[in-house]
Sequence to fold (1396 residues):
Amino acid sequence: MAATATAPPATTLKRFETMSLIRLFEEEAERQYKAARIGGYCHLSSGQEAATVGTVEALAAEDLLVTGYRCHGFALARGVTPEAVMAELFGRRDGCAHGRGGSMHLLDASRGFYGGWGIVGGQLPIATGMALSLVRRGASQAVLCELGDGAINMGAWHESLNLAAVWHLPVVFLVINNQYGMGTSVERASAEPDLYKRATAYRIRGEQVDGDDLEAVLAISQELLAEAREERRPAVLEALTYRYRGHSVADAGLAYRTKEEIAERRKRDPLERARRVLREGGVAKKEIEAAEASAAAAVARATEFATASPAPEVDRLAAGMYAPGSGEQFARMEPGSPFGERELVFAGGLGE
Amino acid sequence: MAATATAPPATTLKRFETMSLIRLFEEEAERQYKAARIGGYCHLSSGQEAATVGTVEALAAEDLLVTGYRCHGFALARGVTPEAVMAELFGRRDGCAHGRGGSMHLLDASRGFYGGWGIVGGQLPIATGMALSLVRRGASQAVLCELGDGAINMGAWHESLNLAAVWHLPVVFLVINNQYGMGTSVERASAEPDLYKRATAYRIRGEQVDGDDLEAVLAISQELLAEAREERRPAVLEALTYRYRGHSVADAGLAYRTKEEIAERRKRDPLERARRVLREGGVAKKEIEAAEASAAAAVARATEFATASPAPEVDRLAAGMYAPGSGEQFARMEPGSPFGERELVFAGGLGE
Amino acid sequence: MSAVKAVEPEVVAARSGVETMTYREALRLAMRQEMQRDERVFVMGEEVGVFDGSYKVTAGLLDEFGPDRVRDTPISEEGFLGAGVGAAMLGERPVVEIMTLNFLLVAMDQVINHAAKIGAMFGGEVRCPMVIRTPNGAGNQLTAQHSQSFDGWFAGTPGLKVVAPANPNDAKGLLKAAIRDDDPVLVIENLPIYKEKGEVELDPELTTPIGLAAVAREGSDLTVVAHSFATVRALRVAEKLAAERGVSVEVIDLRSLRPLDVETVAASVAKTNRVLCVEEGWATYGVSAELAARIQSACFDDLDAPVERVGMAEVPLPYAKELELAAMPTEDRIEAAILRQLELAA
Amino acid sequence: MSAVKAVEPEVVAARSGVETMTYREALRLAMRQEMQRDERVFVMGEEVGVFDGSYKVTAGLLDEFGPDRVRDTPISEEGFLGAGVGAAMLGERPVVEIMTLNFLLVAMDQVINHAAKIGAMFGGEVRCPMVIRTPNGAGNQLTAQHSQSFDGWFAGTPGLKVVAPANPNDAKGLLKAAIRDDDPVLVIENLPIYKEKGEVELDPELTTPIGLAAVAREGSDLTVVAHSFATVRALRVAEKLAAERGVSVEVIDLRSLRPLDVETVAASVAKTNRVLCVEEGWATYGVSAELAARIQSACFDDLDAPVERVGMAEVPLPYAKELELAAMPTEDRIEAAILRQLELAA
Ligand SMILES: Cc1ncc(C[n+]2csc(CCOP(=O)(O)OP(=O)(O)O)c2C)c(N)n1
Ligand SMILES: Cc1ncc(C[n+]2csc(CCOP(=O)(O)OP(=O)(O)O)c2C)c(N)n1
Ligand SMILES: [Mg+2]
Ligand SMILES: [Mg+2]
Fold:
């Protein structure tokens, strides 16, 4: 990855386009949710684009990415097509998890993106184990593990950080500090509100960065990921940012914060900032508009694609649950079995 | 509690007697275990007497104490009679838990000693909740919660410390660092081997003390407990000490450390040290011997008492499981119930 | 617990008689009444205060009782549930809300190895009078990690009591009974029922006894045994079958899972001779397994057909609407099973 | 997983034929054979290395395979079990040891909400081929927090497979099958059986199929269905009753709990017409509940008497020897239940 300072306009413009893509995708997702084409929990990342794109851009092609449930932006930044993401949100066969996972459980192993997890903190031990596996095979790859400011108070944080540090694993824990875990502010939840400082409890490096400054995020991410890859040094990176929308589409997001606070934060909008930087870097206004237009077109194509994609086959309900060959193991379970077993697990639905 | 400096010889002699009592009690427990009068897991604290007595002596009468499974010493230091402790180890009716808990689950609510817990780290959230309850009722009391150097890597540590700190609860977490969690040294288990430093992750005070120096342990414990009681300031106290015997009576304790290491540590024996301090403080040799003799006599009486105490009544097997009045709730569960239910739970065994 | 004294009940929420309200409102009423009655009762959990509860069950409680009795917690289920255990050991009456049953897994050790053990393990010297409130259930495409019902795991744990109300009146009555109970009680609520309306007896002294099932609907042809949302489904099917096919289905609402009221179930089966057990969760190794075991034993000579079961398809619940629907123990599925049992299947 | 290549099997531990060894040694042999066969296999857990395993199952493995493949962990079950999940998602074959089943509760979320969900939740795009090894069981006065068997909870979780060997040969065969399986498998070992001896087939290619029960002893009067240590108890009682009262008891050793081999159980009951289900854990909502439910359904017309059950008394296991003995599903208790079933009770 070229260091930001020397990044050619084309690169920075591409990054801006990705940020725009995420913003527009989230806005479309909200519309589609309200139109009942998307269900379940749907967590948007509008406002967090710089933190998302800046960290993902710092990943090498072979690096791995693990996140929580607020993962649309991370998937898109990692190169999962808007079509595959939107189709997953629509619960369709062509979704990146074939309609099984939905908004919270996006995944694309071919791009080293291993989910998309819904239990707060649950992804941390998993990311740690992936880093352990990288070490076992002598690969110089790193894992980037996203979590939120609320997740940092889960026991899984402590156990994972200690394991990563005591075993010298190549994993960078990215704390997206958007100021709130649902309706609870960082100050009400965390005895050490400077979250990056908690890295000291494990004798590893902890850094805090303005998460709305794409270049700054990219630079520190590259540094920490390089240390992880080359020196097996785990680290904590806290990106300070803000979530414009509610916790999920179902939350108005005003019970615990003021309209004024949101307006205040919007003044520091990462997209606005990126536009400014581009203009200052001599990029023409219409090039910027072209990038936004192409992002908008990509989102439109995604919705079209998702709408056209077929629903998963109901008779393959249990597909993927067990590995091929398991049907034989389950064959003798049938006599007297209750509904679920007989009609679903044994109706050739074991994914074979 | 009188500050150590000004402690009259009688007080220091009494503390020495308690330390001797613990040492002799543990030696007797090991003998009785080998004679098959004690079963289950039996964890001895020989070598940790100063850390045990020094911290418990700092407790006010109304303060609360919660510990892990290595709790004989803490129970004795808190004033639970050797008779009640030994009877519990023997599994007898007159044991402090009526033979239900055994070595790992000693308890004496009348002395504010709330166990005696066997799941590593499990006692931390419970002690934290007790501190919360003290605050709710406006009591100026504190909770002392013991854990080991190995337990500090459990998620429960992190969640409990954060809750205690963010809610300003009067609890002091006492980390008995005896260098090993079973066969795993602190260096192999903890990315920050200076365990007290982990307090900084919660913006609270952390102190380290020579756990074999009774006076030093007492002094810092008094200070931290006072801050907890009067200013609702939680804290971490790491006491550096050593366990002479194996992890439990079943462990020879030599697979992971050398005979030399143990011999080296025995040179700093807390009892030896206490004897020296007493002599220097002008206490006569025979007074010291008298204290040891009375400790020995107490242990002898304990074994005698435990031997004479009757076994629990088998037809009261389920006693205590549910509160009085619950029998009525369970009455309609009987038809077709499996063995355990019918013959035991319903045989008037519900503790009423 | 001298330090925590129970105050005189100055029950504002006490208008006697009945009022129609949602399950959610009934739970809230129960908490308000018990918090007014007993200072030792306090509520703790994620988003229960400022956010009004993620499913709005605790809405308004913070304003009425203040932050000391309606305590927002960090995301630390093991920590704050365990804190509830500790407070209860000192005689308080914590009501700990876990956002959904799925998240109770991170606090499992505190529930099973701690709360459930205290009474017996310490020889009856201390008790743990706490309540854990949490909804089970699926639907709304919440997907595999957020759509589970582990009801039987807790009901199978000696030392715990487990209730699972299926209507607003029992929601109020059972939650109140749980709060007043001197043992740890898990109150399993249910996501789809939160919005269901029903008549609730307002009398603050009325509670629903723990361990007593209800004949939710009388019938003579077949007995359906259910709890929680499955009871709601069963009642709908029973009405439909009565209207469309003149079939008379008796519905037993267990209400409590531990203690389990086998007596009421057995009496019904003795009358109808055919039984279907329904649950929202997986049937294999589920609640309906214990029911079938008890029924075949208690009613061996009464049964004209084997005990049948309907539960969620044995898969981690998928996201797609079509797949989710295919996996759920829907009314269609329950109806089909009833007709099979009665040999009326087309 | 190109990066992790399976090495050529240069199987030192392969003398064909049989050898008598303990259950503990058989488990160790299985791990040695699989670690030699496949570099992706590694062992991780508390005290598995330097300490030789707290129950000595992994003794010597550190010397043979080194610290990278025999990894001592801090006391952080949720952390290192979850690390196993992550490594498995990348195609490794972690064998995670949890010191006893009781401690799995602190890692429950990783097992149920993560390992079990991966295959289905991500649409089959990734798998989780991991093994969790842990002993259940009681005895030796380990008391309430250390004497539990939650076998049914895991067996009731779609996405998991659960096996529970009752003798050395199956210990070796099932652990090897679990390690080679492409799904997460919980291998439930048992404290009292660790020291039991038996003949073990040494052939490294021999595995015990997952999902296949065994007729551990043929008989004609009554079927006892059991798993893990309960099978050992059942076999002792069967021999005793044959010798003393000429009663012919058939013993079915389930070996796998998920998948559950109902076919073999049903075939036996069809022959004997009477059945007793025995388990080390609590029977209510336990494994024997599912067995009774399946049997009454599959063998409705074959049963001469209700399915009976024997399990641990429904109490947190107390410490005192006398109380513990009174609570356990002892041979005496099993014998009494069999005689009751056969109406031979004195
Ligand atoms: C163990 C667990 N507890 C509670 C929840 C419910 N929940 C989902 S997201 C969330 C807030 C997380 O906040 P944060 O970590 O800051 O991430 P953000 O939503 O801000 O991205 C909560 C409490 C859960 N999914 N898992
Ligand atoms: C959750 C859990 N995991 C594992 C164990 C088994 N175990 C009992 S004590 C112990 C070591 C604890 O070491 P430490 O905290 O240093 O306390 P010490 O024994 O040195 O007093 C372990 C691993 C347990 N009881 N609970
Ligand atoms: Mg947040
Ligand atoms: Mg230690």
Notes: Residues B 148-150, 178, 180-181 surround magnesium ion (ligand 4) (CB under 6 Å). Chain A touches chain B at residues 153-159, 161-162, 165-166, 188-192, 197-198, 200-204 (CB under 8 Å). The beta strands of chain A are 64-67, 113-116, 143-148, 171-177, 180-181, 184-185, 205-210, 235-240.
